[in-house]
Model the fold of this input.
Amino acid sequence: MKARLVSFYDLCPEVRHFVFEAPDLAALDFKPGQFVSFSAEIGGKKILRPYSIASPPDGSNRFDLCLNRVPGGLLSPVLFDMRPGDEIEMKGPLGYFTLRNPGREAVFVATGTGIAPFRSLLLAHVPEISSPFTLVFGTRYEETLLYRGEFEDLARRHPHFRFLPVLSRPPAHWQGLTGHVQPHMLEAIGARRDLDVYLCGLKLMVDDARALLKDLGFDRKQIIFEKYD
Ligand SMILES: Cc1cc2nc3c(=O)[nH]c(=O)nc-3n(C[C@H](O)[C@H](O)[C@H](O)COP(=O)(O)OP(=O)(O)OC[C@H]3O[C@@H](n4cnc5c(N)ncnc54)[C@H](O)[C@@H]3O)c2cc1C
Done:
């Protein structure tokens, strides 16, 4: 099927929020956390790339994506060149990076555009499920804390949701968490071993966090992850 670009805006340099619609469908049926797969012919080859849906299901055929332009990448620059009304080939929704145990406390850890599936999951589930959820979200700079206002607002409205932004290059006035997300994930978990931990971002962070959780004695089933590279 096709995906048609409806609108977009830049969240920060080289990171864009896209609103797409699936014109062949009345509603796009997906679970928060799933992805779609986009494809295009580039240099005579069919290039296929998955993108996490960044919005909660709303019964319409519209959905959001959040992606960064990868320098020298094949498909992401093509998506950044799209203008409203342009279409691209799409498959999906696909994937199993969805909420596994709705009644269980969970910690969500993302870096960069790895926040995309958590925006969908948290906007959908926090208002309807009372289990404590913590989001540990790491970026370099304060300006690159994607959707910060939305997560702060969600935390204000729902005391069972905690938002812990982490900056690796904080400005002088920053009083929040700093460095990498991994130690803050461990801090959020504390002595608990009965939580689920969801990880999303680039391999380096995901693999490192998984190894730390395994060392703590977490079962494989409690570590749910999606790697972007
Ligand atoms: C399940 C899944 C969901 C994904 N969802 C998203 C999403 O919501 N948003 C998003 O921006 N990307 C997402 N990705 C990554 C995306 O599919 C592409 O890999 C990315 O857009 C680069 O594609 P490209 O063709 O432009 O670059 P390529 O020509 O494939 O070059 C790939 C290079 O870019 C690196 N790379 C891959 N992804 C990223 C990234 N996000 N940031 C920096 N470097 C990267 C790889 O390590 C590799 O070196 C997802 C990947 C998977 C597996």
Summary: The chain has five helices and twelve strands. The longest helix spans residues 203-216.
